[in-house]
Amino acid sequence: MNKQDTQRLTKRAALLKSLAHPSRLLMIEMLEKAPRCVGELTEAVGSDITTVSKHLAVLRRVGLVHVEKHGTYSEYSLACDCVTHMLDCIESGMGKTVRGSTCETPKPENKQKK
Amino acid sequence: MNKQDTQRLTKRAALLKSLAHPSRLLMIEMLEKAPRCVGELTEAVGSDITTVSKHLAVLRRVGLVHVEKHGTYSEYSLACDCVTHMLDCIESGMGKTVRGSTCETPKPENKQKK
DNA sequence: ACAATTATTGGCGATATTGCCAACAATGTC
DNA sequence: GACATTGTTGGCAATATCGCCAATAATTGT
Questions:
Q1: Helical axes B82-97 vs A82-97, angle rounded to 10°
Q2: Which of A76, A90, A91, A112 has the most B C-beta neighbours within 10 Å, making it the best mutation to test the interface with B?
Q3: In this complex, which residue's CA is closest to the C1' atom of nucleotide C16?
Q4: Mean pLDDT taken over chain B
Q5: Label partner for A84 (CA 20 to 30 A): which of A25, B73, B77, B87?
Q6: Each residue's pLDDT tens digit, A2-27
Q7: Does B35 map to a domain?
Q8: Does residue B15 or residue A107 have the better pLDDT?
Q9: What is the CATH number of the domain that holds B38?
Q10: Is residue A103 part of a domain?
């Protein structure tokens, strides 16, 4: 793996990793509809507010969300509609590739010769 | 977070997590072009073959790739073109949302008065 | 049967992620 | 000022991921 690929793929992996958590996905779905403050997201997610705050920090770090302070409130919003589009793609892909939770049916009866 | 959402989002997160590694992304890019055996992927990735094999197991578990044995070789292939499409969506989204590696620039003037 | 090739699995240490608590910071209210 | 509200950060234990080595399986060739 050359240096350029490593850099490109590492960056892409970081974005995917930031999405790869149920709570963060829920938060993003909520932010698709409207901007929200941390308290609202916390209630929806059902974890401690400090946990949610850290999840939001993850999303901030990769640039998926923006934050705007209003008084003591932090209003989070999606950085871009592309996030929605990305997740739509993933969902449509899921229906086709991931059938069950373990979709790969191991077929040992491949008697092919090379 | 209700039970249904939890299940749906956990599943989606699992798929994203399986994609969220540079080596696995490279392997998928290679498989987009043609089916490959583990050795070929190993050479491209540059890690130990056992590491690559485990990465492939991750992709198998979520159903992103298929494997077909030919003699002692395991020929891996993409389960579906949707994977390609998904990653294209992600790439196009990246250009717009993730500018730098740290794109969210918070206020630099944090006067700490402790 | 034996050895070589290809790949997978178990195990281990190193590292990263997750979720909560306590502490702290920032703002608004009395 | 004192106090409450809203978020963030540090720290910690539990858990998961990662990458390599050793061992194993499966197949092919001699």
A1: 170
A2: A90
A3: A17
A4: 84
A5: B77
A6: 889 999 999 999 999 999 999 999 99
A7: yes
A8: B15
A9: 1.10.10.10
A10: no
Q: Residue B29 is part of which domain span? A: 8-92
Assess if residue A40 is contained within a domain. yes
Both structure tokens of B15: 């798929």
Reported confidence tier of residue B112, pLDDT bands at 50, 70, 90:
very low
Domain count, chain A: 1
How many angstroms separate the Cα of B16 from the Cα of each of A19, B10, B21, B47?
7, 10, 10, 22
d(CA B112, CA B84): 47
Is the residue at A96 inside a domain? no
What value of ipTM does the predicted structure carry? 0.86
Is A63–B20 a contact, with Cβ atoms under 8 angstroms apart?
no
CB contact, 8 Å: A58 with chain B? no
Express each pLDDT in A28-82 by its tens digit: 999 999 999 999 999 999 999 999 999 999 999 999 999 999 999 999 999 988 7
- Residues A31 and A56 sit within 8 Å (Cβ to Cβ): no
Tokens of A71: 């008084």
Cβ A112–B70 below 8 Å, yes or no? yes
- Is B20 in Cβ contact with A20 (below 8 Å)? yes
Closest CA to A108 of B77, B37, B65, B67: B67
How many helices (DSSP H) and strands (DSSP E) are in chain A? 5, 3
